[in-house]
Amino acid sequence: MRGAWRFRVLVGVAVLTVAGCGGGGADTAAGQGTGVDNCGRAVRVSEPPKRAVALNQGSAEIMLALGLADRMVGTATWTDPVLPELAEANAKVPRLADNAPSFERVLAVEPDFVAASFESVLGTGGVATRERFEELGVTTYLSPTDCGTKDNSGDGDGVRSTALTMDDVFREIRDLAELFDVTERGEQVVAGLRERLDTATRDLDASGVSILYWFANSESPYLAGCCGAPGVITGALGAKNVFDDTRAEWPQVNWETVAERDPAVLVIGDLTRKSQTAETAAAKIAFLESNPVTSRMRAVQGKRYVPLSGQALNPTMRTVEGVEKVAAALRGFGPLG
């Protein structure tokens, strides 16, 4: 069985090599197939993938939203429960690991396509590099939210030279829809997300409201810089991120500096994973209210907390959920400027 699969993927290498010689978005040699430009490389498929693996929850939920569960053979690296409306479809897809799986575990399900939300997973030090997968004929795709104007070469979560927008997420949805030949469904998903954004922000003026975004870790907290998914939320609401003076995605900042900036509202990650301290919203709130430095902050004293899933704080289609929940909370808090 493994030998037969190796023969199939080696044939796939030959097909992809021929396809890669042409320009544009299709296999020019045979007039078939399709492709997209992705993070500086051409991704081409001679036919829609049939055995896809999503290495991050964000990629998995996009595939599920596109109706691709029957073409998925694995998911991995989850921070939160799946969206309720995708739960039935997700139950049909094996979870290879709650966190990053081994390269061997992914290969065991014989994928023909692997997608990831983050270069840290689909790159050096992650599950495997794109080149390693492609040597075996496995097509790879990296979310455009994590490349291009984002530098991932340092030790942290990357630095952005240009602010992320929801258009970057919409491009990922459309790219995957193109590769899997479900473009109409892709446009429906994008249209639905746009409508939700418009509804959430209509007639809301949050100018003058300062917000802090805390993802995880109580000893040396990961707080949002200006330009990732929290920047999309802040910009949509017209508010201000108290750490908008850093382009690092999730810099670690000490609590004394946080207290000095004294945000009016605290948006906090409510995660179900167990890799950092203070993962859940409840653990974060308990820390904030018991720590002598943070307990004096006006957001803590006013109990102005907005719990968000990790996926809403990552560049995914659930960033729209982040906009909705923060907008609703701001309306409930009343004037804060």
UniProtKB/TrEMBL annotation:
Pfam families: Peripla_BP_2. Residues 51-334 form the Fe/B12 periplasmic-binding domain. PROSITE patterns: FE_B12_PBP (PS50983), PROKAR_LIPOPROTEIN (PS51257). Gene3D superfamilies: Nitrogenase molybdenum iron protein domain. Signal peptide: none annotated. Belongs to the bacterial solute-binding protein 8 family. This is ABC transporter (Iron.B12.siderophore.hemin), periplasmic substrate-binding component.
